[in-house]
Amino acid sequence: MRQHSLLKVLLWSVLSVTLAGTVVLGGTVIYLMQDLPPLTGLHEYQPSLVTRVYSADKQVIGQFFVERRILVPLDKIPRHLVNAVIAIEDARFFEHRGLDFVGIARAAMTNMLSGARSRSSSSTSTRSTSGTAPMGFRPPRRPTSEKTWAR
Fold it and tell me: What is the pTM assigned to this prediction?
């Protein structure tokens, strides 16, 4: 009889912790989603492009730009380059629909077992484009070593 009540208490404890964790996780997701920009911003993205000045005989005589970007349609990019970038960023790219739950679980297990964040939490392309996000969201910047030395 004692084993039965101990098992019952253990089961209710696990259930309570699971429920509390789900509520906290859901609340965190809802809180963080409030600051996210609308998805329509992804469809309206207008990158800063090069402005070219042409002469009367259609020769480029000048260029003005903040960032030298030239849009290239995806079908004009060699397939080997596309595959190389995908292989570097996400080898399982074609196996999931945007969230790689296997990769997330692997990273979580690695972090728990190592006791620290041992792998990067974002891809190279995510880090490089985070400052140029078209939606106006910029994470707070950490002081650089130059600023630290200047103090």
Answer: 0.39
Distances (CA, A) of 90 to 39, 44, 116, 131, 140: 22, 25, 22, 21, 26
Q: Which amino acid is at 73?
A: P
The two three-digit tokens of residue 63, written as one number: 């260029």
Task: Give me the tens of pLDDT residue by residue for the chain, a chain 151 residues long.
Answer: 577 788 889 999 999 999 999 999 999 989 988 888 777 777 777 778 889 999 999 999 999 988 888 888 889 999 999 888 888 888 888 888 878 888 889 888 998 888 765 555 555 555 555 555 555 555 555 555 555 454 4
CB 134 within 8 A of CB 41: yes
